[in-house]
Each structure stands twice: as structure tokens, then as C-alpha cells.
Amino acid sequence: MTFDLQRIIESKRAWRRALAQRPVSEKLAMLDALRDRTRAIRAAASRLNVSSPARPEDGIKR
Amino acid sequence: MSIARVIRLINQMQTDGVVERYAIGGAVGATFYLEPVATLDVDIFVAFRQQPGEIITSPSPIFDYLTARGGIIEGEYIVIAGWPVQFLPPTSPLVEEALAKAVTVEVEGTPAQVFTAEHLAAIALQTGRAKDHARLLQFIEAAVLDTRRFQALLQRHGLVERWQAFERKFLQGES
After folding, report:
1. Alpha-carbon gap, residue B49 to B83, rounded angstroms
2. Which of B5, B33, B40, B121 is deepest in the core (most CB within 10 A)?
């Protein structure tokens, strides 16, 4: 493992490309799971009375 | 909780004649072309079926149809299969065109109508919030846009200057 930022960025890009190429049904199932997770995080954040970790730039719509 | 169930129910609603045409937009639409990005709702653009003598089209038939099948109204959303779904009329010539030219994508044997990648990208440019810019950058990075079709869309809908500003701000120095 290295801290070569350029390699890290390229590896993240490659991972995103691989995700984008998965079958649509699989990606929609991921959206279902992501939504469950986001809701759970928000509920926990509101119980702790802190602002939600989700930011507009994360693509969270509500 | 399942978007696939939402799509099946919307298809059935179309078959039953409640809406003429629909297309998935927003973050869920983008997921057909890009990596999934967390979202909390589903945007469905619809061509409303106008009743005889009606001047203003109403979403009531959609809400009536879906509540009769277990949907729950929450403000401007209707919750189907655990997902808040928002039905939106086309509010600009660009979105009207996007709806007219939506493509059908098979999701495990179920047809889903979705905006083209070029229309989703142009709508993101037109809407112009931070998250829309982020989505547009995703489309560019993923290289899923047909450049000629995208440029033609920008010309047709008066978005060329906005695109140039976007390029200057976000794409300068990118190869």
C-alpha cells in the first residue's frame, strides 16, 4: 500500500467505472440498499441531535 | 423496499391507461448509465392523459390509482414499495423532448422507460445545482454521452453558453 494520490484517484475511478458497468438490476438493488443505509444514518444522527452527514454534493435529494 | 416493484406498478398504470407515457429521471434515471448514487426518492416524469373538457391536467388519477394499490400519499410524494415517488409534468421544452425520446431498458424482463444519458446530462446542466454539476461530471467521466447528440441538444435548447461556462469552471486542464 502506498499514499500515491494519483494512483488512489485512478483506483477510485476504476472502481466507479466497474460499478457503472454492472447490470441495471444490480445497480437498482444497490440504490435500495443505499437508501436503507442513508435513512438509518439520518435517524441515528437525529437521535444524537447532530446535523445529518449527508450533504447535497453526495447526491442526497431530501 | 424495491425500485423494481415501483417500475412494475408504473408499467401497469401505463397499461391501464392512467398515463400516456412516463420516464424515470433524476438520480435513479442516472443509475441506468452511471454508478449508483444514494437518493431518497424516485422522479417519474409523466405525460398526463387529459380528460375531455379539462384545461388543467391533474395528477389525481395517478394518486387515486396508486392509493387503491397500497400507495401512501406523503406531501407531494406517494410512497410505493417503500420508495417516495414524485410524479412530475415536463416543465420545459427540454424535459418534454426527454420524455418523448425516452428509451426502454429491460430490467430482469421488465421494461423500464428512462431518459437518455444525453437528456439527463442536459437537464442537469439546465437545473444547475451543485449536485446536478456533480452528476454532469459523472456522465463526462464515465464517457457515456454521445458527443454529437449532446451538442445538438445544447444548441436546440439554448444551453451552449451555460455549457461553455461549465467547461471553464470544471473541465479546464482535464484531458
Report:
1. 24
2. B121
- Secondary element (H or E) of residue B12: helix B3-15
Residues forming a β-bridge with B110: B107
**H-helix or E-strand spanning residue B139:** helix B130-142
Per the listing, cell 500515491 goes with A4
d(CA B167, CA B45): 28
A12 touches chain B (CB under 8 A): no
Task: Tell me, yes or no, if A26 comes closer than 8 A to chain B by beta carbon.
Answer: no
Spatial contact of B113 and B23, defined as CB atoms under 8 Å apart = yes
Instruction: Say which residue the cell 387515486 belongs to.
Output: B64
- Residues of chain B neighbouring A29 (CB-CB closer than 8 A): 2, 4
Residue of chain B nearest A13, judged by CA positions? B141
How many Å apart are CA B11 and CA B90, to the nearest integer? 19
- Backbone φ, ψ for residue B33 (5° rounding): -115, -25
> A3 to chain B nearest CA, in Å?
22
Distance from CA of B14 to the nearest CA of A (A): 21
Across the interface, do A58 and B129 touch by the CB < 8 Å criterion? no
CB contact under 8 A, B130 and A56: yes
Task: Tell me if ipTM is over 0.90.
Answer: no
Q: Does A31 reach chain B within 8 Å, measured CB to CB?
A: yes
